[in-house]
Design goal:
The protein is an all-alpha fold. Helices cover 90% and strands 0% of the residues.
Length: 39
């Protein structure tokens, strides 16, 4: 039981980090689109 716990926590952290990266990418693209609209 104990060896699997750090692994699941690590996987959760990875998934969380991936989610944050994806959110940053999407927000960045939205900002780019808005800039193009203003230009």
């Amino acid at each position: 039981m104990t060896p699997t716990m750090p692994l699941t926590n690590f996987m959760r952290l990875n998934m969380f980090n991936l989610g944050v990266v994806e959110k940053r990418k999407t927000s960045k693209s939205i900002i780019d689109v808005r800039r193009r609209e203003f230009n």
